[in-house]
Every structure is written in structure tokens, then in C-alpha cells.
Design a protein that fits this description.
heterodimer, A: alpha+beta, 5-stranded antiparallel sheet, 3-stranded antiparallel sheet, 3 helices, B: mainly alpha, Alpha-Beta Plaits, 3 domains, two-stranded parallel sheet, two-stranded antiparallel sheet, 18 helices, 4 strands
């Protein structure tokens, strides 16, 4: 038993040595495999959620994300929807957004990019207020607070 | 018994030390230069050469002098400082500030670090997602790579990660060496359980809010890396907490106590790494036959891993980070690096050589990128 323990300990130590030697050259491959694991995606509270609708206007592309209500065990009562504008943006952005894809407008957004003023006109009681409206590297992003 | 004779059992001759350094020399050459050293940019070539030679000289000295912690600490401290320097200079270059904006968070551009791991476990299990505004793969400090690096290091080194891999630990390790003798000598050992409480608190609050609460509100190392732009009362309070905790737990208390107080009393990753000490093949062992119970090792341990009762019983607690400080302090070589399963007091040289190779290789390669970057920036500033 003593000899077995010694051998097992040394074998385990050498396996660890091999692991460290292959770790750095294989890091890209290991991390690429890890990134495919089902939980390896950014929580929608940070990423803004999946894109539900995308349409192209004269100068830019508008992306409307799926509304995010994510909680730990169940959906929360309060959430948000993210809208992104990409491309060559005009000074003023005006868009009517249907976030729940029921073919009826839910809110109208008017953004003056020169002074970052954002005006929200809710057309649904579920639409509350503006959480974030700011320039980003790809254009402009807005998050609107929602209630279920 | 002649103490000095025992002390230098770990010491090797110049030739033997060179021989032991040769594999490290070859492997670090391959990993640091990619096997093809590029001399087209003199500053890169110089920074790479200094880093490569520096790490190998340290490894050689570990064998030649028989001392571990002294040379580990040099690399560990340089790593911590280089990483902060690289990160801050990168941010100043790209953002003109040490803080990140909400836009960076919206675009998931925040570099990931291992301290987020304790908070992402429960949400990952329930929501199948990571509660951090970073990049899953690609870019600087992506989530996949950092998790893989930490997992491998923790499996191999256990809490040794805290002394051979954590790029924050070097800060307080450095400050804990400022004074020869501690000003505060007695600290209740029960404080060492505090990180378990912090872990439970941040894991639960992160799960409930889906926000990495430790990073958001507590992490002292935000003070030397990056923090949220101060735009209101909440962000100003956060910045105040980061700076106060850094000043208190990473600078002042380590100087006063000669202990790594943030690692011992606050870090939520410490408990997970401590538990993983049960899995790793390497451990610090006490040779009861040689031990005189002088308790020098207990006094010198920076993480409260050794207790007089433990020494008498011949056991080292799970808090041990295998820094080697106790091994260096023991004049009788009674406390030593060992391999689990191998009885204490036997195969001391073999166990130390194997552990040093594994742990040093990890820190040498892991730290080299940050050290090269900092050296490059310094060289550009000078010339």
C-alpha cells in the first residue's frame, strides 16, 4: 500500500508536469473548446441579449435586441430592451421601435447625438424610461427600461 | 548536529545547477520567443532577452543557493507590477484614462481576471451564462483563456496559485517584505476564515443580482488596474472603497505585520484554491524526525497556514500557498516540498526539483508577456 501511494503520488505529479508543459502551447485550442461549452456566453444583462430584428435605413443599420428580464431562477418583472445603431449615423436619430414584434409600435426614440439628449415617447404601458443612451465604438446604443 | 550542513542540502554545485536549469532554459526559450526570436525591433528583442535571461537566472539561483521564496518573490513582485503597468499604460493609450466607461461595459470589453470566478459559478449553473461584461474568446484577457489557465494552475498547484500564478499577490508580497520585523505581532488566527465568509457573501449576492459584486464593490486591486469611471455618488463610493482596501490590506497591514493580509482575510478565490490543495500532488511536509519545533516557520508563514499545534502534529493546513518561505527559514530542512503519498522526510530533493520545475515554468511563461510589455514601454521611454 505504501509503495502504491508513493507511485500514485509521483505519477500524478508527472501528469501535472505534462499538463503545465502543454498548457501554454495548447491554450488557444483549449480555450476555443471551452468557449463552446453551453454556459460560455455572456449574460444578456451585459451583452444586451440576442438580436431579434435588424433593419437598414438610409445611413445605418438598426438592431433591436430581444427584451431582457433574466434573473437567477426566473424572469424578473423589470427588464430592458437594447437598440443599436450601426454605421454612418446622422446627427439626429429618430426611430419607431416594436420590441415585442407584435407589429404595433412600442416607443419612439429621438436622439440628438450632438448633446446626447434622448427623448422617449412610450406607446405601451410596459415601456418605462431610458436606462442608457450613449455613443459606442460601432455607433449608438440605447437601453430602455421595461416592465412585464 | 551541525545545522549549516543540513541547511545547504538543497544547495547544488554550479555545474549541477546549470544542468537543472537547462530544461527550463529550452522550454522558456520556446514559449517566450515562440521558437523564432524576432530581432527586427530592437526594443522588443532587448525586452524579450532581459525577461528570458532574468527568469532563467532566478531559476538557476533557486537551485544553486537552495533557497526558493527569495527568488520566487522577485519574479512574483515583478509580475504584479508589470501587469498593472501594462494594463494602465494600455488603458491610458486607448482610453486616456485608468477607468472604463459604461460604453466599454456595453460592448463587453472589460478584461477578465480570476477573481471573478467565485461569483460566476452559481449563475453559470442556473442561467447558463457568465455574469461579466468581457469577451468569451479573443482579445485581451478573455474569459475562456483565463478560466483554463486558472483551472490548470489550481489543479496542479492548489493554493500554490496564490504564490506562483496570481498577478495581484505580488503587490502585498512585496509590501510584506518592507520591514525586517513586524510592528503588529499578534493577529488572531480566526481571521483566516474570513475569506470563506467573503466567498459565501459575494457568491450569493452575485447570484441574486447577477452582478459580480466583489469586482463591482470590493476588489482592492481595482486601484492598480482599472475601475468604473466616477460619474456619481455610487461610482465615487466604489473608487473610495477600492483605494481604502488597497491602502489598508495590500500596503499598510502587510508592512506592519509581514503577512499577506488581503490574501489571508479578504480574497474570495483563496478558499477555493485552499480546498484544491487537497487535489494537487504537491504539498509542504514536516519531517518530524528533524523538527526541533523552534516555530520559525510559523512566524514566517505569510498566510497563517502553519500553527504551533500543526507543527507538533506534523501537519500543514489547507491555507498553504507553497511559497517556500518556511522552507527557506528552516535551518534543519525539516519542513520541505513534498509529493503526496511520499512519506515526509524522504525524496526531499526530488520533490523540490519537480515542484520547482512545474511551478516556476507556470509563473515564468504566464508572467513573461506582461514583463516584456512593461520593459518595452520603459525602454521606449528611456531611448
Amino acid at each position: 500500500m505504501k509503495k502504491f501511494k508513493i507511485t500514485a503520488g509521483i505519477v500524478w505529479a508527472f501528469m501535472c508536469l505534462i499538463l503545465i508543459i502543454i498548457l501554454f502551447p495548447g491554450l488557444n485550442s483549449f480555450s476555443s473548446s471551452a468557449s463552446r461549452l453551453s454556459f460560455m456566453r455572456i449574460n444578456p444583462n451585459y451583452s444586451g441579449g440576442e438580436i431579434a430584428r435588424k433593419y437598414i435605413t438610409e445611413n445605418c443599420t438598426v438592431e433591436v435586441h430581444k427584451p431582457v428580464y433574466d434573473g437567477l431562477l426566473k424572469e424578473r418583472k423589470r427588464g430592458f430592451v437594447q437598440v443599436d445603431w450601426r454605421g454612418n449615423l446622422p446627427e439626429t436619430l429618430i426611430d419607431t421601435i416594436d420590441y415585442n414584434l407584435d407589429n404595433s409600435p412600442d416607443f419612439i426614440l429621438q436622439i440628438d447625438r450632438t448633446n446626447s439628449e434622448t427623448e422617449l415617447n412610450p406607446m405601451s404601458q410596459k415601456v418605462k424610461d431610458v436606462r442608457i443612451s450613449m455613443p459606442v465604438s460601432y455607433g449608438w446604443a440605447v437601453r430602455i427600461n421595461l416592465e412585464k | 548536529m551541525d545545522n549549516t550542513a543540513v541547511t545547504y542540502k538543497m544547495k547544488k554545485t554550479f555545474g549541477k545547477s546549470l544542468l537543472y536549469t537547462l530544461p527550463m532554459f529550452i522550454i522558456t526559450f520556446m514559449f517566450i520567443t515562440g521558437g523564432k526570436p524576432d530581432f527586427s525591433d530592437p526594443s522588443t528583442a532587448l525586452a524579450m532577452s532581459i525577461t528570458f535571461l532574468g527568469v532563467n537566472v532566478l531559476y538557476f539561483l533557486m537551485h544553486y543557493t537552495g533557497k526558493t521564496d527569495r527568488f520566487r518573490a522577485v519574479l512574483f513582485i515583478v509580475f504584479a507590477m508589470s501587469l498593472s503597468f501594462t494594463l494602465i499604460s494600455n488603458m491610458l493609450e486607448t482610453r486616456d484614462a485608468m477607468s472604463f466607461s459604461r460604453a466599454d461595459m456595453l460592448e463587453c470589453k472589460i478584461p477578465f481576471c480570476h477573481l471573478v470566478i467565485p461569483m460566476m459559478i452559481i449563475p453559470a449553473a442556473f442561467t447558463r451564462s457568465i455574469i461579466f461584461p468581457g469577451s468569451i474568446i479573443g482579445g485581451f484577457a478573455d474569459i475562456s483563456s483565463m478560466v483554463i489557465l486558472w483551472l490548470a494552475a489550481t489543479l496542479v498547484l492548489g493554493r500554490g496559485f496564490c504564490s506562483w500564478g496570481c498577478f495581484y499577490g505580488g503587490w502585498e508580497d512585496g509590501f510584506s517584505r518592507f520591514r525586517k520585523k513586524p510592528v503588529i505581532k499578534r493577529i488572531s488566527e480566526s481571521w483566516k476564515w474570513m475569506p470563506f465568509a467573503v466567498l459565501i457573501m459575494v457568491a450569493l449576492t452575485a447570484a441574486l443580482t447577477l452582478v459580480p459584486t466583489y469586482c463591482d464593490w470590493i476588489c482592492p486591486f481595482k486601484a492598480v488596474t482599472e475601475f468604473e469611471q466616477v460619474t456619481g455618488v455610487a461610482s465615487a463610493a466604489k473608487a473610495g472603497i477600492f483605494i481604502s482596501l488597497f491602502g489598508g490590506l495590500v500596503v499598510i497591514l502587510p508592512v506592519m505585520t509581514k503577512k499577506r493580509t488581503q490574501c489571508s482575510f479578504l480574497c474570495p478565490l483563496g478558499p477555493i484554491n485552499s480546498v484544491s490543495n487537497k487535489v494537487t500532488p504537491f504539498a509542504i511536509k514536516i519531517d518530524k524526525k528533524s523538527c526541533t519545533e523552534c516555530m520559525k516557520c510559523v512566524d514566517t508563514c505569510p498566510l497563517f497556514a502553519l500553527t504551533p499545534e500543526g507543527i507538533k502534529a506534523g501537519s500543514v493546513s489547507i491555507f498553504c500557498s507553497k511559497c517556500g518561505k518556511c522552507v527557506d527559514a528552516c535551518t534543519r530542512n525539516a519542513i520541505h516540498f513534498g509529493i503526496k503519498g511520499v512519506p515526509s522526510g524522504t525524496m526531499k530533493n526530488f520533490s523540490r526539483n519537480l515542484f520547482l520545475f512545474v511551478s516556476f515554468l507556470f509563473i515564468a511563461v504566464f508572467s513573461s508577456g506582461a514583463i516584456i510589455n512593461s520593459l518595452q514601454s520603459l525602454l521606449k521611454l528611456i531611448f
